[in-house]
Design goal:
342 residues; alpha/beta; Rossmann fold; Dihydrodipicolinate Reductase, domain 2; seven-stranded parallel sheet; seven-stranded mixed sheet; 11 helices; globular
Length: 342
């Protein structure tokens, strides 16, 4: 069976990544690609590396016949998916790669994103898209909210430890490095090569980063009490990738054992032997998350390192993993590509 796919926001990095992944998917066919400023152009003109593919011309969203679409990926800026998803035909399944449906509480959404939600009835319906933890709900969902890429990276490291009661919940510190593509493709002065190529820049420090809303929601739900981690992200001069150093108080061996047990059999999460740590370059271009644990010189403290590709496992790969489940396909279809190295 062939599934008819639309990608909204196809001219952005995550949209292009979806096209790259779907190109080798045996049962997905792209029937519509939307863009705003680049409507009317061919995808191969916007992304020359995709010229060999037979793809539809980029169009405005209102030109798409959604009656002919089975599943829609919404790779749009925050705030644009709400009204659009609300007005889609009810048969169309949706994977939203943006932030519009990640937070279940409308007040929390308004707090972190600065505007009232216009489709609060859909917030209740949306399933949080961290596949390895919401798999059964995703299978039966019409609307899945993709996680933030930073939020996914840290959650893979910490969720089993919080739910297992293995770490102190009041002393968690996460220091994260993110590649430049995580800031999107829009032109920004502070993203110019001359300003980023030899620099490391912290941003949204002091508890201001929007992904903290996801951490608060998910970690507090797991713990049955409020959990408020310290989290600082940094832009580093690489194209793609995320690496999170998570500093926790707990027994390193028990922490490592819990991660091994939780992710045993998971096709896209690899836990390294105790004492080994991953690097960004070990997962580039893949749908894989690698985790490592090392003990500190002070007993009872540990470092948990999590790394993934922000455009793949952190966004578009995760989206396709969820879409596979929603469409009744094997979860790994089209996603078993090995990392690119060097």
């Amino acid at each position: 069976m062939t599934h008819k796919i639309a990608i909204l926001g196809a001219s952005g990095y995550t949209g292009a990544e979806l096209v790259r992944l779907i190109a080798t998917h045996p049962t997905m066919e792209i029937v519509a690609l939307s863009a705003d400023r680049k409507a009317g152009k061919e995808m191969g003109d916007v992304y020359p590396q995709l010229r060999h593919l037979d793809l539809p011309t980029l169009v405005k969203m209102d030109q798409i016949d959604f009656d002919a679409v089975d599943l829609c990926f919404a790779a749009l800026p925050h705030g644009l998916s709400q009204a659009l998803v609300r007005d889609l035909p009810p048969h169309v399944k949706v994977v939203d790669l943006g932030a519009d449906f990640r937070l279940r509480d409308p007040a929390e959404y308004e707090k972190w994103y600065g505007a009232a939600h216009v489709a609060t009835e859909l917030q209740k319906e949306a399933v949080y898209g961290l596949t390895e933890f919401y798999r059964d709900d995703i299978r039966n969902a019409r609307l899945v909210a993709g996680t933030g890429c930073n939020a996914a990276t840290v959650q893979f490291a910490l969720r089993p430890l919080i739910s297992g009661g293995l770490i102190d919940l009041d002393t968690i510190i996460c220091d994260l490095k993110n590649g430049i593509s995580g800031a999107g493709r829009s032109l920004k002065e502070n993203m110019l090569f001359a300003e980023r190529s030899t620099d490391v820049l912290g941003y949204a420090q002091g508890g201001k980063h929007r992904h903290l809303g996801e951490f608060d929601q998910e970690f507090s739900l797991l713990a049955g009490r409020d959990v408020r981690i310290m989290f600082t992200p940094h832009l580093v001069p690489v194209n793609r990738g995320i690496l999170a150093d998570c500093y926790v108080q707990g027994d390193p061996q028990a922490i490592h054992a819990a991660l091994v047990e939780r992710y045993q059999g998971e096709p896209f999460v690899t836990v390294l032997p105790l004492g080994q740590l991953p690097g960004m370059g070990h997962v580039t271009g893949s749908n894989i998350c690698q985790l490592g644990v090392v003990g500190d010189r002070v007993p009872g403290r540990a470092l948990v390192v999590s790394t993934l590709d922000n455009l793949c496992k952190g966004s578009s790969g995760q989206a396709m993993q969820n879409a596979n489940l929603m469409l009744g396909e094997d979860e790994t279809t089209g996603l078993m590509l090995a990392p690119v190295f060097p």
